[in-house]
Amino acid sequence: MRKFRFYYPQPITIGQQVLLGASQHQHLTKVLRAQVGQNIYLFTGDGFEYVAKIIEIQRQTTKVEIITQDGPQALNPINIELNFALIKFDNIDYILQKCTELGVNSFRPILTENCSIKNASTRFNAKFTHFNNIIISACAQSRRNTLPSLKYPISFNELFTTNADLKFIVHPRELIPVTLQKHIVNLNNVSAHSPNNLQILIGPEGGFNTSEVELALANDFQVLSLGPRILRAETAAIAVCALLQGLWGDWC
Predict the structure, then answer these.
(1) DSSP per position, 69-86
(2) Are strands 62-70 and 17-19 parallel, antiparallel or unpaired?
(3) What is the dihedral of CA 127, 130, 135, 141, to 10 degrees?
(4) Can you tell me whether residue 21 is helix, strand or coil?
(5) At what angle do helices 128-142 and 89-101 cross, to 10 degrees?
(6) Alpha carbon distances (Å) from 180 to 76, 117, 184, 210, 221
(7) Half-sphere exposure of residue 234: CA atoms within 13 angstroms, side-chain side
(8) Cα–Cα distance between 129 and 150 in angstroms, integer?
(9) What secondary structure letter does DSSP report for 202?
(10) Which residues contact 156 (CB under 8 A, 6 or more apart)?
């Protein structure tokens, strides 16, 4: 049976009665045709899922009572931070949705030299709530009870301030200068390790320029090439997250 799951942005406890937001009320009553007495499921991002019974349907809101608490949900054994260059916003929607389903813990947009979007940072910030709602919807759909964090854009140079066990810059092999080929990592040689924190860097449609690759390498990143084909940025993000989940995450 399909579970009707909704995000509630505040802490809740068993026995508490809460009012759902207008959009959730609209979806429950107009789309799902929910009735008084029916159970739904809430998550707050704390790792738990809450069973809630509809006790009253008003004109503009629905009141529910928290019945039980399930969880906490098992945590992914690897913490994945996905840093992605600002690309077309529809494609950012796709990255956030699919990589949330794949278990990414945090998202950080990066301003790169080949970014083709004018005023990209300002425009991203204006749509920040929209992007965060994409993440919330993906959590609801995939039965994930923890919310990934979404950060505001930073410059490429500001990226190199956090530590991770492994850091990968995803870049097509044919675009890597011969002098940097030695930095391409073979995951078969590192798969015996069990990293806790992974940092991934995905470039824009035009790719990273050589100076950006060199700066990443100087800050302990390794080049990860995803085979002989040139992938779109959003495809590369999904592919590398799936690959790392299969090696070290909760797909094992």
Answers:
(1) EE-PPPPPSSEEEEEEE-
(2) antiparallel
(3) -160
(4) coil
(5) 30
(6) 33, 28, 8, 9, 12
(7) 13
(8) 10
(9) E
(10) 110, 111, 112, 113, 212, 215
Residue 41: the pLDDT is 96
End-to-end CA distance of the chain: 27
- Please state which of the ranges 189-193, 227-231, 243-247 shows the lowest mean pLDDT: 189-193
User: Where are the domain boundaries for CATH 3.40.1280.10 in the chain?
Assistant: 79-248
Q: The pTM is what? A: 0.90
**Amino acid (1-letter code) at residue 216:** A
Architecture of domain 79-248: 3-Layer(aba) Sandwich (3.40)
- 3-state DSSP call for residue 165? coil
Least confident of 40-44, 88-92, 144-148, 192-196: 192-196
**Residues linked to residue 39 through DSSP beta bridges, in sequence order:** 53
Is domain 5-70 in CATH 2.40.240.20, yes or no? yes
- Reduced to 3 DSSP states, what percent helix, strand and coil does the chain have, rounded to the nearest 5? 35, 25, 40
Half-sphere exposure (Cβ direction) of 228: Cα atoms closer than 13 Å: 0
- Ranges for all domains in the chain classified under CATH 2.40.240.20: 5-70
